[in-house]
Amino acid sequence: MKLNRRINLFLFILVLISCGNRFPERPLIQYTFETKTLEQILAGDAVWSKAHEMKYHFGYWKPSVWVKFDLVNPENEPTDYVLELESPWVDTVLLGWESNGEVVKKTFNGSGAFEAREVPHRNPTYKLALNPLEKRTIYAHIRNSGILNAPFRIWKINSFFDRIERDYVANGIYFGIIFALLLYNLLIYVSVREKAYVYYCLYLTTLGINYSLLGGFFKQLLVPELAMSIKPYLYVSVNASLMFVGLFSLSFLNLKKVNPRLHLLILFSVIGFGIMSMVSFVLPHNWMEVSFIYTFPYLFLLLMSAGAYSYIKGVKSSLFFLLAWFTLFVGVIFDSLTKASLIPFSTFGRYGVQIGTAFEVILFSLALGRRLRFLLEENLLAQNQLTTIKKDLETARKIQMRILPDKLPTNQKLSMVVSYLPLYDVGGDFYDYFEFSEGFGLVIADVTGHGVSAALDSSTVKIAFRNAKEFKESPKELVAAMNRFLCTSLHARFVSAAYFYIDFENMKLCFSSAGNPPFILIRNREIESFECPGLLLGVRSTFAYEERVVDLQEGDRILIFTDGLYENLKSDEEPESILFPEISSIIGERSELFHKNLLDRLSRMRQVSKDDITLISLDII
């Protein structure tokens, strides 16, 4: 509702400032394409045609035209008039007439400096003084490298300058809207970093440049002392506008997902407009202007079709996109028909392009605002979902912590240090132990995969381990029992594991492995690794596992770990060649410090973690 009131206020202001004085009718002209001098024209050598059918437009391919019309002062006193040609982009104009037997000439050069003009106005403008009841025939030779037309108006001087003030207010409102929307959307882009806002801001910028060039404001207000032709810059900015609005449409309508073929068609069109923008300085001007006759309707139909398709496919903000293009199209049509005198003059016709583009950029801004709201809603939903996932992960982490031992063993014959570092909040590594008077049993396992699913399966490994307690003094039997259980309990997932049994009475370590890395024994500052090959758990229920025995001594340090400890450190090297040098540097440190420093040294070598890490240090005391 607030936006509608603002739009209505904008239209009311335009109507108010444009209705103070009625626009004078264009004079009836006659024309000829003959190449003659002003003296030959005044001598009556030319054959003239009336412009009733062609109105005041003569196409794109004629280089010049002579026109003539009568200027009459119906007053009984001298009157000052202003003759205005509503073509700020025309190349040259030669104006002439006979007065008291003398030929009077006035010229206009579109490439000349603005400050050299007779009347400081964006259009070619001339002051004329007529005697009471005088009738004067005016001859004008117009040259232009684009569209050739002769939209003259004859003003009384006071009405003309009053109209100038109103035009400045109307165009000031238009440029104010463009600048305000540009600044507003730039600030939004800084906040959200949405690519569509960049293209929209670039489109607004080139749109403002287009109209400042097309309306003659650029030379008048920015470079009045500079002699230059605006046409090449106009063609560059117009094609750049088409390119940026195409890029904006691609980003806004999300056509790459909605319709890839339509996306490619618009993308190739955008590339074409970009190329046209770059070659605008070298192509003939009439070619460029003729191209706009086809490119604007083509782009209009293409983007309207894309917007309609996107809307049908559920992109609801595309409705604003469609309305924006429709209002621009209506504004351009009314403006063109009014300037060609094909429809009666009206305020909307006079300011058709301004009103159409103002509505377009406002509706585009609304569409972006709605898109931003959807993005914020999706972001909020994603944050809520992320919060829920985090809560679930925290719950899973707590559950997994209950699966792992809640304390270290209290056996007087060994000390144990454990580091459990899951890749995510929860992991697939697992360890547990049996503690009894004559011995100590320890299992370590690594479920394939990461995250919640692996963590859930690690609980199954714990059940398998506890169910095999009767084999606690026989590692190969315990691992085999776990394997039989997991073959029926896991689906498409496997487990590497190892079980170690320490016999304190005989000072022996018995172990069996199912694909787990070899363990490391440190004795008298010497380092040695021991391996017992075996198939992963959960692959074949009838697999028979081996068992090895290692003699122990007081002061031995045993390192048991999963493969995450050394993976992603040095490619194509065995665990021993990676770990042994690091262990040698800290081999004499006490258990807790040794354990911490080893992890720190390996962590500094590791660029990125890709697996869960479990490290267990056992000291025989």
TrEMBL record:
One of its GO terms (molecular function) is phosphatase activity. Residues 413-620 form the PPM-type phosphatase domain. The lineage of its organism: Bacteria, Pseudomonadati, Spirochaetota, Spirochaetia, Leptospirales. Gene3D superfamilies: 2.60.40.2380, PPM-type phosphatase domain (3.60.40.10). The chain crosses the membrane at residues 168-190, 197-218, 233-255, 262-283, 295-312, 319-337. It comes from the Bacteria. Keywords: Hydrolase, Membrane, Transmembrane, Transmembrane helix. The keyword Methyltransferase does not apply. PANTHER family: STAGE II SPORULATION PROTEIN E, STAGE II SPORULATION PROTEIN E-RELATED. This is Stage II sporulation protein E. The keyword Transmembrane applies.
